[in-house]
From TrEMBL:
One of its GO terms (molecular function) is metal ion binding. It is an enzyme of class 2 (transferase). GO terms for cellular component: cytosol. InterPro entries: Glycosyl_Trfase_fam3, Glycosyl_Trfase_fam3_N_dom, Glycosyl_Trfase_fam3_N_dom_sf, Nuc_phospho_transferase, PYNP-like_C_sf, PYNP_C, Pyrmidine_PPas_bac/euk, Pyrmidine_PPase_CS. It catalyses: thymidine + phosphate = 2-deoxy-alpha-D-ribose 1-phosphate + thymine; 2'-deoxyuridine + phosphate = 2-deoxy-alpha-D-ribose 1-phosphate + uracil; uridine + phosphate = alpha-D-ribose 1-phosphate + uracil. This is Pyrimidine-nucleoside phosphorylase. Keywords: Glycosyltransferase, Metal-binding, Potassium, Transferase.
Amino acid sequence: MRMYDIIAKKRDGQPLTQEEIDFFIEGYTNGSIPDYQVSALAMAVFFQDMNEEERAAITMAMVHSGDTIDLSDINGIKVDKHSTGGVGDTTTLVLAPLVASVGVPVAKMSGRGLGHTGGTIDKLESVPGFHVEISSEEFVNLVNQNQIAVIGQTGNLTPADKKLYGLRDVTATVNSIPLIASSIMSKKIASGADAIVLDVKTGAGAFMKSKEEAEELAKAMVSIGNNVGRQTMAVISDMSQPLGLAIGNGLEVQEAIDTLKGQGPEDLTELSLTLGSQMVVLGGKANTLEEARSMLEDNMKNGKAIQKLKDFLSAQGGDASVVDHPERLPVASQTFDLEAKEAGYIHEIVADEIGHAAMMLGAGRETKESEIDLSVGLVLNKKVGDYVEKGESILTIHANTSEVELVKEKLYNNITIKSGNIDKPQLVYQIIS
Ligand code: URA
Ligand code: CA
C-alpha cells in the first residue's frame, strides 16, 4: 500500500477502505508517513468529506493508536459527557455529582488546558486539599464505592489525534466535520466510555458559530458513536452569552454548589437537567428522559445531589465544608461593579469576549506556563433579556488588583443595552439521538 495512492483516491472523491485508513493512521503515528503527505490527505478530506464508514474507521484507528483506558472493573454503564467548550460552562461540576446521586457511575478523566477559565480539574482544586493524583486502582475503587471519581490525564491516549490535530492547526484543515468529529470521539472512546452525551455549543463563545454547523457536527458524532457500539446522544445549546452567572474557577464551584442545592441560575440548571437526563437514560437507570429528569430534580430538592458532592470532595482529600461555607473557597481581595451607563434591556453579552475579560483577570491560562488565579472572575447580575436601570450593576468583577480599567473597557464594549425589549435566547436548540 502506498500513501500516494491513498491521497490520490481521496483527492478524486472516492471513499477509503478501513485498511487504507488504518495504514495511514498507523504510519503517521510511528513516523513512517511524513507530515507533508498527511497534510495533503487532510486537505483532500476537507474538500471531499468522508462517509459514515470512513468516519467510524478513522475514529477507531485513532483510538488504537495509543493506550486505552479499561474501566471494565467499574460496575455499571460508564457514561461520559463532552462539551465542545464555552464560557463559564459549569455543567461538568454539576452533572458529575448529580447523575452519580442516582447511581450512574461517573469515572471522569479530565485535563487542565488553556482557556478563559481553567479546566474541570483546576476548578475542583479551588477546594482546599482536593487532588486528582490518585492511582488507577484507587480511581476504580472510588467509583465503585461512591459512583464518582475524577483522575488527571493518564497514559498515552490517541497520539494519532494529537499529531493530526497539531498538523491541521497549521494547514487550515481544522474546520472539517469528519476530522473534528473523529478527533473528539476518539478521545472519549479511548478514555473508556460505554456511552457518550455531547453538548455541542453554538454562538459567539463556541467553536461552531452557526446552528447549522453545530447540528452537522452533533449528527456526525452521534452517528460515529452509534456505529462503533457506543450509544451516543447530543444536545445543541446556546453559547451566545456565558452559561449561568459565574465565570471563574472558585466562583464556578460556588455556582455548582448552588445549582446542586436547587438554587442555581435557571439556564445552568436547565442544561444540567437536560444533559443529565440523557446520561441517566444511557446509564440504564431510567427508561425515559422524563423519568430521568424527575429523579434528578428530586435529588436536587432532597439533598442527595449536594451530599454526593460532599462525599466526592472528601474522598479525594478535599475540604467538603466549603459546601456550607463558601467563604472557605478562594476569595479575591477586591470587587468592582460594572454599572450600566444607560437604562434599557440587555441585548448582547458576547460570550467569548467576556471570557477573555475573565482571562485578563487571571482566571484562565493564555499559555501552558501561565499561572492561574482560582479566586478571580466575573459574576453576572443581568443576562440577555433583563432590564437594567442606569447605574445598576450589570456584573461584579472579582479581582486581585485595583487596575481593572482595561477589563471594564472590554466588558462595556461587549455588552449591548438598548431601549426596546428582547426575548431571552433559547437555551436548548435541538436534541439528537
Ligand atoms: N476539538 C478537538 O478535540 N478536535 C478537533 O478537531 C476540534 C476541536
Ligand atoms: Ca457559569
